[in-house]
Design a protein that fits this description.
Strand content of chain A: 5-15%
Largest sheet of chain B: 5 strands, parallel
Number of helices of chain A: 18
CATH topology of the largest domain in chain B: Rossmann fold
Shape of chain B: elongated
Largest interface: A-B, 46 and 45 residues
CATH class of the largest domain in chain B: Alpha Beta
Strand order of the largest sheet of chain B: 2-5-8-1-9
Strand order of the largest sheet of chain A: 6-5-4-7-8-9
Structural class of chain A: alpha/beta
Number of strands of chain A: 9
CATH class of the largest domain in chain A: Alpha Beta
Helix content of chain B: 40-55%
Radius of gyration of chain B: 24 Å
Shape of chain A: globular
CATH topology of the largest domain in chain A: Rossmann fold
CATH architecture of the largest domain in chain B: 3-Layer(aba) Sandwich
Oligomer: heterodimer
Number of helices of chain B: 15
Largest sheet of chain A: 6 strands, mixed
Order of helices and strands of chain A: HHHHHHHHHHEEHEEHEEHHHEHEHEH
Number of strands of chain B: 9
Distance between the termini of chain B: 49 Å
CATH superfamily of the largest domain in chain B: P-loop containing nucleotide triphosphate hydrolases
Order of helices and strands of chain B: HHEHEHEHHEHEHEEEHEHHHHHH
Structural class of chain B: alpha/beta
């Protein structure tokens, strides 16, 4: 910190506090900026000179941004923070938008903490933001049963089993290993160096283990409401077991809930889910939600080792054509698409809804999944498909 | 403390140098590159495929007169391919030759595990150059998380530990440029350690400047039309938008076909060259004669 102390003396006190405050301002706006960064901001300010606004902007942008969405929001935030108030009018509305929506949530009696998290949710800031406009607060999706202790235990046990099996999947690509199916010549020669060139110790190559990434897309519309608590519990248990699980909920729009599910405090997790889904109107637009997912998240999340699991009853109020196109698009990126339909297990039900009919040609597996038992039965099939 | 004008001048100067190296950089990028030189931090560059992320490193190497060392990441990339490996065959040969040597065993061992038998892979090479090179770590998101952790160690300490040889510290600090296409979310630790730059598709003026530099045969009005056409194509709903490389390819294809003006009459012939611009079947089906004629007429 010596360098920092030397640096701190350079600009005037007012400028200094102004500069160091900027990192905190960005943090409040959901940037992944740490405490040490304020010192770096100062250093940069000294290096580049603080009087030229453009150079300072470009330099701080490179220093403090970490990902694409932060990059795009930076200019407005920079203007809001550094420009004199009379020039601020236009940008301020942009910069303070997330805060306003957070305020709106707070009015409805939710906790401060949760509201901030919803507005700045790293996974899906924008969706969370427009999920919080005032008029839509009337309808609530209720996740209050998310933590019933007795069921939770069963679910966690089952998900542990599922996760363990997933971890055992092998790739075709090989890596060096102590045991294995094929001899690794390079490794064997390397081992033999210690014995003067006699290959006593053999080296092998074995197929690398790899965990496929899972993307869960959960329908939380009203027709699914008897099941959505259950699936969110599954998703929470699964996120606890596997690192590479990404969960989204959809209804009339789609939003990422990974952050909320991973919250170690179950009550806060519940609160955050509540906030994310608050204010979604009626009707399920599966096709449009999947299309939005393709546009906003798929390029980042879905790769050739990704299994996508859609949980929905297939009652789509949108155009079936949109759904078919969205699924076809997803199918091109993902390794497998599994569709769990809770109604499928019921006697006399057949997937004749228009949405389901449109979806069928693009699925690798359509399976029932109304309760824990049916999930248990379907797990081996899912693993078989993901392999 | 530098005066602001001085820094601005530096930014403009670097921009010019980059341009003479064949890279049209926005001032923000030039400022970030200067900061990278000041702070000695790596630069993480993100953006869609084909916006010229890799070219940054090449241009930087040209401007600095430095060697460019490139590490292409892929799934399953490991230490042996990225940092170092012993040349076992030569070591064995040496052992056989040393069998009749009278020197004590410890000395022989030292000889066998010396740098002569070390195969330097890009990362080790980068930290053992006498002049600071530009190290390009391309598409880091394709490598596994485990490799990212190795990389973090290297980027913070600039040293590599080889069990048989000890720790090798960097002779000079390489200028590190890391690119990512976003097929996998990078760790926050890596992001925090780097300066960041997001590169978007170029706007009309920037792309025109690029075409004029890279394809000098395309005459003024024609180049404008080409760029206008590509910009319109990018605004369409496509699975894969054309990058700058595609623009240049397409320009070359048009010139090769003897097309020197883009209008709706020439739509047929433009269609024949579109394979240089549109690269998936679904996108290609969207380009009928009418669509091409409409876009061309607007250029």
């Amino acid at each position: 910190m010596n360098a920092a102390a030397a640096v701190i003396d350079a600009p005037g006190a007012l400028l200094r506090s102004r500069l160091t405050g900027f990192a905190g301002f960005l943090r409040a706006n959901g940037y992944g900026v740490g405490g040490a960064d304020s010192v770096r901001v100062l250093e940069t300010g000294v290096k580049t000179g603080i009087l030229d606004q453009q150079v300072l902007r470009w330099s701080l942008k490179a220093l403090l941004c970490g990902r694409g969405d932060e990059w795009r929001r930076f200019d407005a935030l920079f203007d809001a923070y550094f420009l004199p108030p009379n020039k601020k009018v236009f940008v301020e509305s942009v910069a303070t938008q997330p805060r306003e929506s957070a305020g709106g949530l707070r009015d409805s009696g939710e906790s401060d903490d949760g509201a901030g998290a919803a507005a700045g949710s790293a996974d899906d800031g924008s969706a969370a933001r427009h999920g919080a406009s005032r008029e839509e607060l009337l309808a609530h999706t209720d996740f209050s049963e998310l933590h019933h202790p007795d069921q939770v235990r069963d679910i966690e046990a089952l998900m542990r089993l599922f996760a363990r099996r997933l971890k055992r999947l092998h790739l075709r690509r090989e890596a060096r290993s102590h045991r294995g199916r094929r001899l690794d010549l390079q490794g064997t020669i390397r081992n033999s160096v210690a014995c003067g060139g006699t290959p006593f110790r053999l080296a092998f190559r074995q197929r690398r283990r790899v965990r496929p990434r899972l993307v869960l897309l959960l329908d939380v519309s009203r027709s699914m409401s008897p099941y959505s608590f259950f699936y969110l519990r599954l998703a929470r248990a699964l996120s606890g077991e596997l690192a590479d699980v990404h969960c989204f909920i959809f209804h009339t729009r789609i939003t990422g809930v990974g952050e909320a599910l991973r919250d170690p405090d179950p009550w806060r997790s519940q609160e955050r889910l509540h906030l994310l889904a608050a204010g979604w109107g009626g009707g399920t637009r599966i096709g449009e939600c999947l299309r939005d997912f393709n546009r906003d998240h798929a390029s980042r999340l879905v790769h050739s080792r990704t299994g996508v699991v859609v949980v929905s009853d297939g009652y789509d109020t949108g155009e079936p054509k949109v759904l078919a196109e969205a699924l076809a698009g997803l199918r091109r990126r993902a390794r497998r698409i599994v569709w769990l339909n809770p109604l499928l297990g019921q006697p006399g039900f057949s997937p004749v809804s228009r949405g389901m009919q449109a979806a069928l040609p693009h699925l690798d597996l359509l399976a029932p999944g109304g309760d824990l038992e049916s999930i248990e039965r379907v797990i081996p099939k899912i693993i078989e498909v993901l392999r | 403390m530098n005066s602001p004008e001085q820094r601005m001048n530096e930014v403009v100067a670097l921009q010019r140098e980059l341009e003479s190296a064949g890279y049209v950089a926005e001032p923000a990028l030039a400022a970030a590159l200067l900061l990278m030189l000041d702070l000695g931090r790596p630069l993480l560059v993100e953006g869609d495929a084909g916006v010229g992320k890799t070219e940054i490193a090449k241009a930087l190497a040209t401007v600095r007169g430095a060697k460019l060392i490139r590490l292409q990441c892929y799934e399953g990339l490991d230490v042996h391919a990225a940092m170092y490996e012993w040349n076992y065959q030569r070591q064995l040969l040496a052992i056989k030759l040393l069998e009749h040597d009278e020197r004590p065993a410890a000395l022989k061992e030292q000889d066998i595990f010396s740098e002569r038998y070390l195969l330097k892979r890009p990362l080790l090479e980068a930290i053992s150059c006498a002049e600071p090179p530009v190290l390009l770590i391309d598409e880091v998101d394709r490598a596994d998380e485990a490799f990212e952790a190795y990389l973090l160690e290297l980027l913070s300490e600039f040293q590599i530990t080889i069990p048989e040889l000890g720790t090798l510290s960097a002779v000079t600090r390489p200028l590190v440029v890391i690119t990512s296409n976003g097929t996998r979310e990078l760790s926050d630790a890596l992001r925090r350690r780097c300066l960041y730059q997001y590169i978007d598709y170029p706007d009309f003026d920037k792309e025109l400047a690029i075409v004029e530099i890279k394809a000098p045969h395309a005459a003024g009005q024609f180049a404008r039309q080409v760029v206008e056409f590509v910009q319109s194509v990018r605004r369409m709903e496509l699975q894969k938008k054309p990058g700058i490389a595609e623009t240049l390819d397409w320009t070359a294809a048009l010139l090769r076909m003897g097309i020197s003006v883009i209008d709706d009459d020439g739509a047929e012939r433009i269609l024949e060259t579109l394979s240089a611009l549109v690269k998936t079947r679904g996108d290609r089906e969207g380009f009928t004669r009418e669509v091409v004629a409409r876009i061309a007429a607007a250029c």
